[in-house]
Specification:
Number of domains: 1
Strand content: under 5%
Radius of gyration: 21 Å
Structural class: mainly alpha
Helix content: 55-70%
Pfam families: Retrotran_gag_2 (PF14223)
Distance between the termini: 79 Å
């Protein structure tokens, strides 16, 4: 099978990991680059979005509605984050952990009360 055929027939079955698919994509891209037939980054990104299984549907919609598409590296990171979130949501006990991670990433984590201002000065 030629590299162009591999590119055209690229699929991501449900049991394939994001890391595996991205590795295959990078191999194909490198081969296409050597053959001087490299598609644009935008085409590569939309090809990846097109082959994703239904569990990524929400993320695909969000990315397609963005004014500027992500780079290939940022898309890979977003897909890994989505996989992590899907795994965490499948376990109801992990829901609090998801909120904690989101808040920590956004800088909205709670400060330690021991180091904050005194709330009960009248007891001193």
């Amino acid at each position: 099978m030629t590299t162009l055929d591999r590119w055209k027939n690229l699929r991501m079955p449900d049991n394939m990991t994001v890391a595996s698919v991205m590795q295959i994509v990078h191999e194909i891209i490198n081969n296409l680059r050597e053959a001087n037939e490299l598609p644009s980054d935008l085409i590569i990104i939309y090809k990846i979005l097109k082959i994703l299984p239904p569990k990524f549907e929400t993320l695909v919609r969000i990315i397609r509605n963005e004014q500027t598409p992500p780079t290939l590296a940022k898309l890979s990171v977003r897909l890994q984050m989505e996989v992590t979130e899907i795994k965490l949501q499948s376990d109801p006990h992990e829901e609090a952990f998801i909120f904690w991670i989101r808040n920590a990433i956004c800088g909205r984590h709670r400060h330690n009360l021991a180091f904050g201002p005194r709330q009960f000065d009248h007891y001193n």
